[in-house]
């Protein structure tokens, strides 16, 4: 059985490496279309929900199929998945695993997991054993090419483990799960004992590891650093890379699929060998879009024309690596974290400001800013938390406030009230979001197409 599993992973690894040799965008799109049409036919036959949703529409018109989102997926979970698993059964299994911190049991051979649910709406995912093993092969091919030929010790820092991640244990590759809910000093001690060559962790944890390395409390220097689960803020990237003199690679992975990974040049590319991404344009001039995902690699829980809640920025220049896969400049954050500020010429009208604009404004204000968070509390009220050494505190706050007000002026917004607070780092079950909006926006029109 072990050999069969290894063969499935190796097959996906080889397939991914072979597809990576495609250099023509037209050739890639033609190949994708064939895969999607074959996949759509299977999904229509196996999923009662999609069969009804697509009634009257031929497979060739799949781009006209209705767009769904997390709410639709959770509402119709029982009839959407193709193996007859009920939502309450899956939810109980996933919650039991999180409570006991034993993530090995699933439902039969099916892995069940929960998304982090930063917006309060947690999503369920189902992955078959075959899909798990294929996922492992794809991940290895993109992030650790040559992993089958050399020994690697991988440290995965995650809020919840999963059989999905355990699938990476193949051949010479050793995988150990590090629970993010454990105390930081315990995790650092485990790192010193394990001595990983590869570290996969959210940026917030990579910073803590970087701090431990700088202070001398951690004597490990991994060969590869991979950022997952949170937006990789430019400030965090710089700190981590300077700590280890290593580039930080990225993975864009969520309930809806393995969506993007960095190439050897460090550019984030959409994984268009397993997913098709339609772009719901938010700002054409800036290259910002909301992804609509069709995953043609998974059949257990089909993801077809599924609208995410993220904003991505497409890279303007082609990547030097030569890949035809779409290059991404940045993952800017969630649509829910756009700031909405009243317009100067009409306070009843609201102007959206993208999270990456906020981040860049704060970072540019001072080289003394070590960490920060910006939170919109009300339409004209923002709280900024800064970690900065005491001698630079007052001048840094004045500079940040001036630059934030200038950003508002340039955007055509009213001046805002800014309160400053000390930065308080929080670890555990909350994802780090450097820019977030807690203000309610029920009466504000959504600029990204949701009403």
Automatic annotation (TrEMBL):
Transmembrane parts of this sequence: none
Domain of life of the organism encoding this protein: Bacteria
Gene3D superfamilies: N-terminal domain of ligase-like
Organism: Paenibacillus oceani
UniProt protein name: Adenylate cyclase
Record InterPro entries: ANL_N_sf, CapK_Type1_Caps_Biosynth, CHP02304_F390_synth-rel
């Amino acid at each position: 059985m072990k050999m069969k599993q290894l063969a499935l992973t190796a097959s996906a690894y080889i397939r991914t490496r072979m597809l990576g040799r495609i250099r023509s965008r037209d050739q890639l799109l033609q190949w994708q279309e064939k895969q999607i049409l074959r996949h759509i036919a299977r999904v229509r036959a196996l999923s009662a929900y999609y069969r009804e949703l697509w009634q009257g529409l031929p497979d060739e018109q799949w781009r006209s199929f209705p767009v769904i989102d997390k709410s639709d997926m959770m509402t119709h979970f029982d009839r959407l998945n193709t193996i007859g698993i009920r939502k309450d059964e899956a939810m109980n299994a996933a919650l039991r695993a999180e409570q006991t911190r034993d993530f090995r049991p699933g439902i039969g051979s099916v892995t069940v997991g929960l998304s982090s649910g930063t917006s309060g709406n947690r999503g369920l995912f189902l992955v078959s054993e075959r899909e798990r093993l294929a996922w492992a092969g794809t991940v290895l091919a993109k992030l650790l090419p040559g992993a089958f030929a050399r020994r690697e010790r991988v440290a995965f820092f995650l809020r919840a483990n999963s059989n999905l991640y355990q699938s990476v244990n193949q051949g010479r590759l050793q995988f150990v799960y590090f629970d993010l809910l454990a105390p930081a000093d315990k995790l650092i001690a485990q790192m010193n004992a394990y001595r990983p060559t590869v570290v996969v962790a959210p940026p917030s944890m990579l910073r803590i590891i970087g701090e431990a390395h700088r202070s001398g409390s951690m004597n490990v220097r991994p060969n590869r650093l991979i950022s997952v689960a949170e937006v990789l803020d430019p400030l965090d990237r710089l700190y981590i890379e300077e700590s280890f003199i290593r580039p930080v690679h990225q993975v864009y992975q969520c309930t809806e699929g393995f969506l993007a990974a960095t190439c050897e040049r460090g550019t984030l590319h959409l994984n268009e060998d397993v997913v098709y991404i339609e772009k719901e344009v938010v700002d054409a001039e800036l290259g910002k879009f909301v992804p609509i995902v069709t995953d043609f690699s998974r059949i257990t829980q089909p993801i077809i024309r599924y609208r995410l809640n993220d904003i991505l920025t497409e890279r303007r220049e082609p990547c030097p690596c030569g890949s035809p896969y779409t290059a991404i400049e940045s993952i800017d954050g969630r649509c829910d974290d756009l700031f909405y500020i009243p317009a100067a010429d009409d306070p009843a009208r609201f102007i959206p400001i993208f999270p990456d604009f906020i981040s860049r404004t704060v970072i540019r204000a001072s080289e003394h800013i070590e960490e920060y968070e910006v939170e919109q509390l009300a339409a004209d009220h923002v709280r900024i938390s800064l970690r900065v050494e005491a001698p630079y505190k007052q001048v840094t706050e004045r500079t940040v406030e001036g630059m934030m007000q200038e950003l508002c002026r340039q955007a055509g917004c009213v001046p805002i009230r800014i309160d400053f607070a000390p930065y308080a780092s929080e670890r555990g079950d909350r994802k780090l979001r450097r820019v977030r909006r807690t203000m309610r926006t029920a009466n504000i029109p959504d600029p990204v197409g949701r009403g």
